[in-house]
Amino acid sequence: MIGRVLARTAPIGRSTVRGTNRTVSNAAAGKVNASATTAMEYKQQHPRQLRRLPRVEGGASAAEQAVSNILYNTPTAPKMQTERHILDCLAQDEPGVLSRVTGIMAARGFNIDTLVASKTEVPGLSRMTLVLKGPAIVMEQAKKQLEDLVPIWAVLDYSHTQIIERESLLVKVSIAKPGADGDAAASDFMDSQERLRALRQLADLFKGQVLDVGPSTAVVSLNAKSDRIDAFLKLARPFGILEAVRSGLMAMPRSGSATMFESEQSAPQATITHDEAPDLSNLPPS
pLDDT per residue over 223-272, tens digit each? Predict the structure, then answer.
């Protein structure tokens, strides 16, 4: 009997404790609700002001300005330095060699400025001189491909070598009075002679020759470096150039480091120290 009474009284004590805890929690909640402000009331009393985001005005001008800013701020890609290369190919004299050489250069993207091909003093051996511009790295690959060709004996690179370069020019210039026809009258003959005299003076300055003279035209021959030929054509343009033929660059290496014509060396000259004695075999005869 006593054990049953204890078992019955235990749940009564637990329920009493739980009830008291619920009463305390309800009372605390009432105090909080009475002194605190709800979120909805706070939002109603303090309305939030949203900031406007910056925007770009629409239109073609705004888009053009944005694109220009992007292009201005974008770094440019580094360009490969192009150099002037002079190649001399010794090849077997047979059909199709020239087309194969130019095909390799065209595949590499090289634009050939001048090309001179002719026979040599050795029977069956031809020589081709090419002047082109392009990157040095690509040029090395092109040289290796040229050397792999069966008809090619050797490929010589004169780009950084002391060489003698010459180019021939034939140009036909008008000496008639401007506005006159081919058959110059007696009154225009003196004017054509004056123009011919001025043309001869110009050719003498460049060490050229007047090969042919007609009633209204004259043919001048010039053998010099490429830049001197360009200068002569620029000065002869006021006369009236009718025809012009250029042979292309012909190159040959010099015999030694010490030469008589130091001003004609296109490649960088070798530095000579004072301690080294010059080779007397390379000096010109006294």
Answer: 999 999 999 999 999 999 999 999 999 999 988 655 555 544 444 433 33
Cα angle, residue 186 at apex, residues 184 and 192 outer, rounded to 5°: 55
Task: Output the pTM of the full model.
Answer: 0.58
Residue 114 has pLDDT above 70, yes or no: yes
Mean pLDDT in residue range 202-220: 93
Q: What's the half-sphere exposure (Cβ side, CA atoms, 13 Å) at 38?
A: 5
* 147/117 Cα distance (integer angstroms): 17
3-state class (DSSP) for residue 80: coil
Alpha helices in 36-59 (DSSP H): 39-45
Q: How would you class 203 by CB atoms within 10 Å of its CB: exposed for 0-12, middle for 13-18, buried for 19 or more? A: buried
CA–CA dist 84, 254 (Å, integer): 19
Query: Would you tell me how many other CB atoms lie within 10 Å of the CB of residue 222?
Result: 20
Cβ proximity of 166 and 224 under 8 Å: yes
CA–CA distance, 217 with 196 (Å, rounded to integer) = 9
What is the pLDDT averaged over residues 139-155?
88
Q: Is 180 helix (H, G, I), strand (E, B) or coil?
A: coil
Neighbours of 130 (CB within 10 A): 25
DSSP 3-state of 158: coil
Determine contact, residues 187/138, Cβ cutoff 8 Å.
Answer: no
* φ, ψ at 86 (rounded to 5°): -125, 115
| Two tokens, residue 199 | 């043309």
Token pair 């300055």: residue: 205
